[in-house]
Structure formats: C-alpha cells, structure tokens
Task: structure prediction
Amino acid sequence: MLTYLDPNFSKQPFPDVHNALKNPNGLVAVGGCLSPERLINAYKQGIFPWFNPGDPLLWWSPDPRLSLFPSQFKPSKSLQRLFKKNKFTLTVNQFFPEVIQACARPRKNQPETWISPEMISAYKSLHNKGFAHSVEVSRNNTLVGGLYGVSIGQVFFGESMFHIESNASKIAFYYLIMKLREWDYHLIDCQVKSDHLMNWGAKELPRTEFIALVNQYCVKSTALAAWKNNSP
Result:
C-alpha cells in the first residue's frame, strides 16, 4: 500500500524503500512537503522527489540505481583534452540560484520542466543551509553551464545540469569529479540510467547495495575544504 505523507508533519517517517512499487519503478510515497528537514531525511534514505507540474509530490527510490564512484570515473580523451585547455572559468557555489534557474528552463523537445518554482525555492533553502551545491562553468563572465545537487557526508546526490555552450555541462561534471576525489567523497547518486554517464563509468547498482552505501557514507564527515570556491 502506498504511503501518503502529511504536508504538516515533516518528521513523519518514510516507508521502507524496499517496499517501493515496482510499477512505476521505485515510487515510495506521495505528498508531504519539501522542507529542508524532509528533503535531508529523504536523501539519507536513498529517496528523492520528482514530480511534473500539476502532479502531487512524488518520492522515489528506483531499483536499480545508477551510481558512480569518483575513483572509477572514465572521461573520454576528447573531454580530457578540452578540460586541459582551460577555456572556461570553473567555480563552486558562486551562482547557485542562477544554476538552478538555468536547469529549470525548458529543453529542446521538452516544453515542461520538473524543476518547478516550488522545487527551486526548496533547494535554495537547502543551499542556504549548506546541503545543496552548484558547480559553475563561465566564459567571459557569462554562465554557460553547470550542475547542482545535494551533499550529505561523503555522498553527492546529483540533481540536474545544463549547458548553453557545447560541452559546458560535461566540463562541470569533470570538475565535480576532480573536487569530489580531492574531498574524499565515495559515491555519486546519478538516479536513473543515462548512456553518457554509463560511458563515464557509472553503473547500475541493486537498490539494496546502493542503500547500504548511502548508509555507510552519509554518516562520514565531509572534508573541511569541501564546497569552498577554489577554482583552478
């Protein structure tokens, strides 16, 4: 039976993710709210929100779960060459509002976006509390790409990325990996299967294995240097 969450009770526990629906894959619960407390609790249990405009708030923990270990990142030679050219200015947490707004813009052949004003407000609150972070790619003082996600312990939960200039989002991801390695992160949650992430070393993990890793690494201390802007 699907659990319906009380929007006025952010401490209401989620059901066991291993009881999530198989169709649609990974649906855990409906309703609730997007308070920082509710969101942090969700990520710590391997759950994330995703819902289309006009839909109720939906919470997911799909099986399998696309994951990437920073140590196993395999960039293409062309991406490595592009990164080494230093064509872009790379920063961390300098333009979080701008990044999430850019990620929310409709894409080609995708007129609607799941990153609603409600989601934007919620993740800005998470950012202000030190849990949501952005990586930015700029050229000539203009933002041309980036990504954002949630960091808890030594786990980064990726949410969305965008690019205005070709390959800028790939450069953002490359820089993210370099920083996560430096900060001793152990796991990136990529949520659902993506061909280009699979080509970079991501793999689908059984939900039981993914949740075990989340439980192991979310309680670890985050490096003191993490998420402070120190562009190369």
User: Anything to note?
Assistant: The chain has a mean pLDDT of 94. The helical segments are 36-44, 77-84, 96-104, 117-128, 168-182, 195-199, 207-217.
